[in-house]
């Protein structure tokens, strides 16, 4: 494990897949809020104190998780007054909680399990396997897009929503044929940059009606080229 002190309140740890396995964990375990994951996170915090002098002062601790290339996991710990150690993990879990079940259920309900994925269902078709990632600004989305390696094409678009005199941006991602591991990897990598995540198709409908589509198709690929 490699530790790096970002600032007085933040430290980052890079963990390899081998190191996870040695601790009885897998990448996908970080999408589950269970005792095993929390125990490992607390172990990392304790090691951070020894390695780089990161000491929790008693305030709530948050953790951001990002999946990096070459089977590496980046864990960024920060002592913040408005969150707890598993708050962001739980938020992410709410968006991908039923990755397998939701995909199968949608296929069963639509009777389209044997058909090829429809590449043009984003928003307009209200695909039940739609994930919505919220960002403060476009720069955050671009930074996120540049941070990931896309192993398969990802159906995605960007919407801007103007409310109360301020703009917020949303990246919409469809499962659309992606395997559980790949969609989990793509979404979990966003935790370091996004503000919130959901899988609510009603929110997608609201964005389609009241928001402005900034990038209609292949948004991640487009943003990576900027």
Can you tell me about this structure?
With 226 residues, this protein is α+β, with helices and mostly antiparallel strands. Helices cover 36% and strands 26% of the residues. It is built from eight helices and nine strands. It has a five-stranded antiparallel beta sheet.
In terms of DSSP E residues, the strand content is 25-35%
Straight-line N-to-C gap: 33 Å
Q: Note the main sheet.
A: 5 strands, antiparallel
Shape verdict: globular
Count of discrete alpha- or pi-helical segments spanning 4 or more residues: 8
Tally of extended strands? 9
Q: How do the SSEs run, as a string of H and E?
A: EEHHEEHHEHEEHEHEH
Strand order of the largest sheet: 8-5-7-6-9
Which residues form runs of ≥5 with pLDDT under 50?
A: 81-86, 97-107, 109-122
Look at the structure and give the mean pLDDT: 75
Radius of gyration: 18 Å
Give the helix level as a range of percent. Answer: 25-40%
Secondary-structure-derived class: alpha+beta
Keywords:
globular, 226 residues, 26% strand
Write a brief caption for the model.
The protein is an alpha+beta fold. It has helices at about 15-20, 35-50, 85-95, 100-110, 140-145, 180-190, 200-210, 220-225, and strands at about 1-5, 10-15, 60-70, 70-80, 130-135, 155-165, 165-175, 195-200, 210-215.
């Amino acid at each position: 494990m490699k530790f790096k002190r970002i600032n007085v309140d933040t430290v980052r740890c890079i963990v390899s897949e081998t190191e996870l396995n040695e601790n009885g964990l897998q990448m996908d375990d970080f999408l589950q809020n269970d005792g095993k994951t929390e125990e490992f996170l607390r172990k990392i915090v304790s090691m951070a104190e020894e390695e780089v002098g990161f000491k929790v002062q008693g305030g709530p601790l948050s953790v951001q998780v990002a999946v990096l290339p070459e089977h590496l996991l980046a864990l960024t710990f920060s002592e913040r007054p408005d969150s707890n150690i598993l708050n962001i993990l739980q938020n992410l879990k709410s968006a991908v909680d039923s990755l397998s079940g939701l995909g199968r259920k949608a296929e069963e309900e639509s009777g389209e399990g044997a058909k090829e994925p429809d590449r043009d269902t984003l928003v307009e078709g209200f695909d039940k396997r739609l994930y919505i990632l919220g960002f403060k600004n476009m720069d955050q989305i671009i930074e996120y897009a540049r941070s990931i390696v896309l192993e398969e094409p990802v159906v995605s678009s960007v919407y801007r929503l103007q409310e109360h005199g301020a703009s917020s941006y949303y990246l919409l991602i469809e499962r659309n044929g992606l395997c559980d591991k790949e969609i989990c990897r793509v979404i979990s990598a966003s935790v370091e940059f996004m503000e919130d995540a959901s899988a609510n198709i009603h929110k997608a409908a609201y964005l389609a009606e009241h928001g402005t589509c900034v990038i209609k198709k292949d948004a991640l690929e487009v943003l990576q080229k900027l």
